[in-house]
User: Fold these one by one.
Assistant:
Number 1:
Amino acid sequence: MVNFKRVTIEDVAREAQVSITTVSRYLNGHYEYMSEKTRMKIANIIQRLEYRPNIMAQGLKANRTKQIAVVVVNISYPFCASVIRSLSEVMAPAGYGLLVFDSNGDKQRERDFLLSLRSQNVDGIVIQTNGANADLLQNISKELALVMIDRRIDIANAANVVTNNEQVSYDVTHYLFTTGYENVIYVTEMENGVSTREERLRGYRNACLKAKRQEWIERLDKSNEESYFHTAERIRKNMNGQSFAIYTANGLLMLRLYPWLQKLGIQTPNPMGLATFDDPDWASVTTPPLTSIRQPTEEMGRLAAKLILEKVETGSTENMPVLQILPSELIIRDSTMLKD
């Protein structure tokens, strides 16, 4: 006969041969109080017993909703999907649910979401901001746990989890010059105060300065297909028979620009190299495979989850790091293997 009796925290503790306090600490993400062996043992027992914390009871006891909001600029983008998945992997065992919102990078839509979440009393917010609502985020940080991910805004009560955009953008540009490309064309959007765009552009410019090469920056409107066509045409008209590499500020730009570049009929990697920030799944299956910058999305998601849980559980921002920078990795593939 099947036993439908609800599994309790006492059952988990009994099976794991640990105290209820230890299980509670595990559920709240306080792993520093236990060994890795104990943590894995509790996790396996929770999975085997299919234990689910009583989120409502936990929330009432601690005056919390046990809900964390996540606001991203494009939920279909691989970076965002990976971060959300990593957040969930940490939050779910701790008994927290995720409310996910897609701002589409729109200032007003993001602002509306933030105002709504503020009134819903969520316990915290992880946000990939469009950069235009710093005033509202500053006020929210005084009331809720707040972590900015990917895009940085310096707010005293909040943490930023970002990658080393400027350095790795410098690295890929420097690599392209040293490989032998005469020009490196940087394709981006208008900065509009978005920290990732500013930092990647700065890295590109510093590499041009170091190599004593002329900057070539193409800014396009990602929502306008004609913008991609005109960018490709300007490149075709001005390449002057020299080898050149096109480096896009993110994978979405390369995805949209790539078909127009193919129509130019120019061989890759010689004379045209291709590289992009981000390392989407399709980068390794293009012809030739695409040189890219792989961001540590899983690590960023897990770190953001850890920081937001610490803030929620302690209710304090003391000792909370304002800025956490995780390194990205340059992945060199055949699209930039310039042959003499």
Number 2:
Amino acid sequence: MLEHQKIFRIFQLLARLRAPLGCKKADIAADFEVSARTVERYLSLLRSIGFHIEFHRGRYRIRSLNETRMQVEDLITFTLEEAQLIKTALENQQVKHPLQQSLLSKLYAMAEMPELTETIFDQSVSNNISLLYHAMKYKVQVVLRNYQSLNSGTVRDRLVEPIRMYRYNRYLAAWEVKDGMIKEFKTERIEKVELTEEPIRYSASYGNYGVDLFGMTGEKSTIAELELSHRAFLLLTEEFPGTEKYLTRTKNQYLLKIPVYKWEGIGRFVLGLPGEITVKGPDALKNYIKNKVGEF
């Protein structure tokens, strides 16, 4: 993984740990597509630079920064050398420098300010996302330069027709011309997006394609109905923005009626909160949950 991608991933983890209810190690591993051991190394890194990470009811959460490790005045400015290192890192170069730990410590500590954590975003990823939106607006094909695929273990260029972005612009759904099918691409694994002058040609093959709020794709959706506790409601709206409009308040709980394309996405959410959610329908979703529980 490139150096700027590692830094971006740490920021993503910090944002999740700063959420009121924190996050689960298994969820982090699944979203980052890494092992639980790798997540533990990330957590150890944060602890080593002064973050106090709590573990409660299966969830990790940052309570506060250990103030003895770094004073407020240390966070206000960067030295000229550190500023240059930031510039170098954002220019997508691999960096190994004695000042790197000092720089990272300051950046991590700044995560105590939630608004800053939410706005710091790797420059090259941001530029790629802008180009993808441009391609979708003007309906042209793009080349994803040196895309790093975990599934195939390859790094190669991909000629695609972008369809839509989802989950905070972390994922791209696109038609890959070579394989003739819709695929999911993680934006942080794209080294560079290159616009072409070729108009899209295969829209007839994916015209009815959609992405639900749990990140699942398909052409025909089904309404799933869940009854949520207050805790499940908070986690749902925090982790899956946009679900609010599908919720109604009952006397002591919340009712969710939402279109989904596959059971895997919403199923992971249900299985992650045992005792907090009741599946009201359809029967296919109930059976999916029962089968998954039976696998343990």
